[in-house]
Amino acid sequence: SESVDRLDSTWARPAGNRIAASYINYYPGNGVVVVPEFGSDLDVKAKAKLAELFPDHKIVGIENSREILLGGGNVACITLPVYAPQRR
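Above: the chain sequence. Below: its structure as tokens.
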């Protein structure tokens, strides 16, 4: 892209290189858990486990999270939590 300056210390990721795809890089928010999806049968299993762990939360999958991984992180890495204040 013309609007992105490439640094000398960066390199292109060659096709075929493995990337660290992990469901542990989810984001828990107020009433929602956002989890990466990789187009695998394991997506359903991961979302089911998170639904078990967070029974009062809606589980939302982000399709094709591989594209985020190519940047070096995933869902939790690209978010900033801002939690609602607790009522006392």
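DSSP finds two helices and three strands in the chain.
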